[in-house]
Amino acid sequence: MTDYGIPPSIEDTKTATLIHPSVQTRQKGGTLVSVSTRSHRWIIDEPEKKGGTDLGPTPLESLLGSLAGCESVVLRLVAEAIGFAYSDLQIDCEGTGDMRGARGVKGVRPYFTAVKMVIEITTDEPPNRLELLRRNVEQRCPVMNLFESADVEMDVTWRARPTAQDRSA
Question: Are 104 and 144 within 8 A, CB to CB?
Answer without folding.
Answer: no
